[in-house]
Amino acid sequence: MRTNGGRTLVSIAAIAALGLALCPSAAPPARAGTRPGGCDPGAQLSRMTAAEKAGQLVMAVTEDGPDGMPSDRTRRAIQELKIGSVITSEPRTPGLAARYADRLQRWAAGTRPHLPLLVSGDFEFGTTHNVREGTTPLPNAMGLGAARDPRLAREAAAITAAEARAMGFHWNYAPVADVNTNPANPIIGVRSFGERTGLVGGLVEAQVRAYRRAGMIATPKHFPGHGDTETDSHLGLPSVGYDRATLDRVHLPPFRRAIAAGADAIMTAHVVVKAIDPGLPATLSPKVLTGLLRDEMGFDGLIVTDAMDMDAIDENWGTREATAMAVKAGADVIMSTGDYTAHEEAVGALRDALRTGELSEARVDASVRRVLALKCAYRVAEHRYADPARAERISGNAAFRRRALAMGVAATTLVKNDGGVLPFDPASPERTLVAGTVQTGEFADAVAAVARGPVESWRAATTDPADAEIAEAVRRAAGADRILVATFSSGPLPAGQAGLVRALRATGKPVAAVAIGLPYDIASYPDVPAYIATYGTTARTQRVDRTMHEAAARVVFGARPGGRLPVTIKGLYPYGHGLRY
């Protein structure tokens, strides 16, 4: 290990070596044009039937049976529909995840093509994103943006890849390459590295290179950019009206840098980009996927769609029609996240389109070849199965957790500290009240692990506390010596949370607010004397990052905060602002 500016850094090479030792399949991809282990995509393609080709272009979400392992309907999707890749549901532990992946691969081995599956997952803030127990929670992208250190971004990718590969995953839907220029964005938020193109592009490039080095397929998303939307594409069809010059200057450069870094896959956005195609979302648009991404930007890797059952697509075109449209537009893999019937419809739609000539054989073969080439390049067949014991040993190990906490402290941003309210004295026997809405109990547990004195938590029933609830929080505060208020927003902060902060501040006790989601909350309660941003909780799903709770608690009690705002808090604090003790 080495130190830099007082922070201990583990070399990326050391992490990679640990990953390779515990998970030999975690090898970098083969060089372009080589055939690792005799793997020949052209020969494989020549032996495939039309039905098998269609199956390779569909990624199916798995379904769990009563034992927590994949269900018989998942077996049917693999063996009868011949699907080529899966995105798993959420296996609980690393050992279970490895056994889960192994069962999927055994089923695939029993099909006529005998091709291995690409097993994928959403691991934006580490494998904890999907495998909740026994893994290493890492900062969200915006936290890494606040830390401003490409080495930490690379290290986060290396840890993620080491754990994921040990569990049998090959494909990660990260990094997020969206530039979050709209504070009201309800779906990207802390999943983005920040609001500045240069910051986002540099960290995207760093992570793509680190993932490739660690043998993990990286997937920058959501092309050509989801950072300036005000509609959640899970719930509606977003559109952006900026001009082509803005697209080129702000939103495309991170994808260009990802391509230059060797990204093997890119995920589409269910967003209408009016400057390119005012009629269709990027996922279904030949102008975006073929005209812009392939022809203008020169990307010849694999294009995967975002989930096709999201309302942006399903409510407007229906998943069956949209499946053929997406492949015709230039997509290679359709992400089918519905039930077995949805997978059957997706494969059937491609078979029918091929049979009728709606999709040419050459067009389908080009996509199948990309899928097969990726399996060859990442040596999936050579290391088809994971070892559950290795998965348990590498995932969430003590070294990774220590590094995660160091990243968390480097990300935590002290935005305001009037009158020296912070840090609280960890040796004091004073009583601390932690009040809030989302995840207050978890944050209070992290505070209790650091504080010597007693810690009490209080949580409102909803994200918009009623007056009676605020009065109860004030009553609880009467017995406290100091107060932490955890606020959370996925857009504008609910008025009740701002009211809670103001009411607790009026008690006269030392008060600090901690934004556990988006960093903009202080705009709704600007008079709070002390304020910390953690970027720890995602917007729509409220996925918690336990490491950021622990890091924030450490900063509250004296650890030196390392973060600087990766966004502007309009009218209050500029991009790059951050205080130190």
Topology, element by element:
Layout: E1 2-4, E2 7-9, H1 12-22, H2 41-46, H3 50-56, E3 58-61, H4 72-79, E4 85-87, H5 94-109, E5 118-121, H6 141-147, H7 150-166, E6 171-172, H8 197-213, E7 217-218, E8 239-240, H9 244-251, H10 253-260, E9 265-267, E10 272-273, H11 286-296, E11 302-304, H12 311-314, H13 319-329, E12 334-336, H14 340-356, H15 361-377, H16 388-394, H17 398-411, E13 413-417, E14 432-436, H18 440-448, E15 455-459, H19 467-477, E16 482-487, H20 495-505, E17 511-515, E18 530-533, H21 546-556
Parallel strand pairs: 3-4, 3-12, 4-5, 5-6, 6-7, 8-10, 9-11, 14-15, 14-16, 16-17, 17-18
Antiparallel strand pairs: 1-2, 13-18
Structure commentary:
With 581 residues, the protein is an alpha/beta fold. The protein has 2 domains: 2-394, Glycoside hydrolase, family 3, N-terminal domain (TIM Barrel, Alpha-Beta Barrel), CATH 3.20.20; 412-556, Glycoside hydrolase family 3 C-terminal domain (Rossmann fold). Helix content is 39%, strand content 11%. It has 21 helices and 18 strands. The chain has helices at 12-22, 41-46, 50-56, 72-79, 94-109, 141-147, 150-166, 197-213, 244-251, 253-260, 286-296, 311-314, 319-329, 340-356, 361-377, 388-394, 398-411, 440-448, 467-477, 495-505, 546-556; strands at residues 2-4, 7-9, 58-61, 85-87, 118-121, 171-172, 217-218, 239-240, 265-267, 272-273, 302-304, 334-336, 413-417, 432-436, 455-459, 482-487, 511-515, 530-533. It has a 6-stranded parallel β-sheet. Helix 7 (150-166) runs parallel beside helix 8 (197-213) and helix 19 (467-477) packs parallel to helix 20 (495-505). The radius of gyration is 24 Å and the shape is globular.
